[in-house]
Amino acid sequence: PNINNSCYNTRVITIYTKNGTLLSSSFREDGILYTSSFFRVEKVMDDCVNLQILRAIDDRYIATNNFITVKIKCICAVKCVVDTIT
Length: 86
What we know:
The protein is built from no helices and 7 strands. It is mainly beta.
């Protein structure tokens, strides 16, 4: 990229389940329990998707070392939040 372009490596998403609730996941980092509803798609596998959990801090999204796998048929809607660098 040149000086006028930004390169993003993550499309932050939220997911709504087929019953209309926002998907969230708990994870532990440095002994502290967090919950997040922000993810990025790591891999699509047959009928499942592997999601990396992102941690929201102020206006930034930080990639964690935590992942969840969700059956695609359980997903009703995906909302793109923001493109960012994690």
